[in-house]
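Give me structure tokens for this 494-residue protein.
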Amino acid sequence: MTVVTTDIQGYAQGAFASTPFASGIAAGNSGLQFEVVITDNPEPEGIQFQNDISFSLPNGLQFFATNLGFNCPGYAEGPFGLLPFAASACIASAAMQFDVTIEDFADPNGVQFFVGVTDFPDPEGVQFEGVITFSDPEGVEFDVTISNFANAQGVQWNQQIVDYPNPQGLQWENFVTFSDPEGVQFEAAVVHVEGVEFRVNLYNTTQLRILCDFPSRGAQSGAGNNAWGNPVATGQSWRTNSVNASADYDINNLNTDIVEQTYRSASGTITGINLDCDVETSPGTFLDTFAILNTNLTTGASLVLVGSDNSSFSPIGKTINLVPRADNIFHIEPDLPLTAFRYWRLQIDDPNQTDGHIEIGTILFGSSVIFTQDECMVDRIMKKPRHFVDSVRTEGFTSVKNNRSLKNRISLRFESLQFGKGNFQSLDDIFKSARTSQKCLWIPTPHPTDGAITERFAVFGKIVDLPEQEHNVKGTVGEDLDFISFGFDVDEAE
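Here you go.
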């Protein structure tokens, strides 16, 4: 085991986020940099790491810790709280326990805290606890990453930031990106904070995902104009370099729920087309799901989606090559997006197009609600195509009909979702917000590379009826073991 600690006078800016705190502060004096590196532990009996910092008036603090190649068989659960890391837990089994406390900072200019736990072959467990209890900081940046856990048996993770009477800002970012965990216990508490940026992700590309919030349609509220000169929060988030002569095919048709209400490029223009979107909020959106619905694009088209923080798209921060398909095109990001962008551009070239124009009904993108891997819907999905026809009765005994396309209805069933877990809570939030009146993009079978699998059961529709919930309450007094079963339909024609 190698442990390195470094106490350095002077504070240097870290780069944990796109705009880290404390940039340019305390360039040359009165700061603390602390580094811990634990590597190459093939079969440790256990590691306990504890660091307490309690001094006043620092100009900055940087804390950095990594653990690489740590193989730790055996895990005994230890409670967080009064005795967060009991000695018996580490003596009785092999596990990693990590405790950091920072307190009594009267007036720090900045704190940057980073913990990385990566490349554990088969860890049996990790416990992490961090507590920050100082007042009036100019800024705090907190980044914790746990990744590449092949078969983790359990993770316990507790972070608390308390008693901030008037902080200038807080950035807090947590990632857990391992596969097939047996269990994750995550607790975070922030008390008395006026400004917080908080992000927690358990990301996968195989489970049910639902997109109900569409940054592609711009901000939901606000004042002023967006980068294209249109009023904010009015659904005018798009611009194009190819405008059709008919107002019926306006660029902002891309934001309507009616996918038959389309955008068309100028007549004769099938290449060199740019569709630009301003999501109208900063820092933008973390795009993990993208969909083009009802399009005439051919399978030979070139579709490139780029993201940028500059409305002129220079520089470009993200490039995604989309795979074209007939009618509908879906993209699932293979990895968790780590950077948000405000401006997105879809570059289209379709030289084999015989219609003489490009036509698209709706474009949706944003960050989806994603089911975690320990629970999901039942395997049997019911799908029913429907012939959708609009009918309007005229005078006398006649009517006018608009014969539209086939629409799909899917039936989803969920068995024994645990009440206290995020999956049921996510669906319950959708029931309360979207209800039966808002369309969402439902993708039961996403796939990061195969658009056909993603599209098979995907629907952009409304919940037909809010489901009746069957609760199976178990456990003794004091326990909350409530398992819920229910089903519902989502219909594109609603």
